[in-house]
Amino acid sequence: xxxxxxxxxxxxxxxxxxxxxxxxxxxxxxxxxxxxxxxxxxxxxxxxxxxxxxxxxxxxxxxxxxxxxxxxxxxxxxxxxxxxxxxxxxxxxxxxxxxxxxxxxxxxxxxxxxxxxxxxxxxxxxxxxxxxxxxxxxxxxxxxxxxxxxxxxxxxxxxxxxxxxxxxxxxxxxxxxxxxxxxxxxxxxxxxxxxxxxxxxxx
Length: 203
Prior knowledge:
By secondary structure, this protein is mainly α. Helix content is 70%, strand content 0%. It starts with a helix and ends in a 10-residue tail after the last helix.
């Protein structure tokens, strides 16, 4: 009789644990979908990263790969929980432990080297602005950042005044609030340009 009573008490606990695991797996799966979306279409942050390398960055592929793995294991976690398979649940638990450790290491590393990372991106961004020509990869990254973040230059729009590109064509059109209002003559005049371009810097 006590054994039967114990089983009755255990069932709600197991049901609760299964519900928790399925909910967690769905959240885990959803984060994987987000990473996939960022890897496929998110160009703003990746544009910043591409400035730090002349040959671009593999970050999109890393995000897509990571997102795909998380999506697969998220579904696997739901399936394992519903099946109640011990070896599947153990495998899923090992994967979650590895993900937790990876995130912990990444978080600690990012915190420790945050100033170095910021300095590297700042230097790369300034270099890209200085050598801007509208055609190479880094210049395209600059345009993407300015259009998407609604910003212009490093600290503000006047950073473009000391560049070779400004001497020839003025402030880039990617700084324009409305491209229809941006004429070549206006973009070569800092005072007039102030009214039609984004004033705040991107960094």
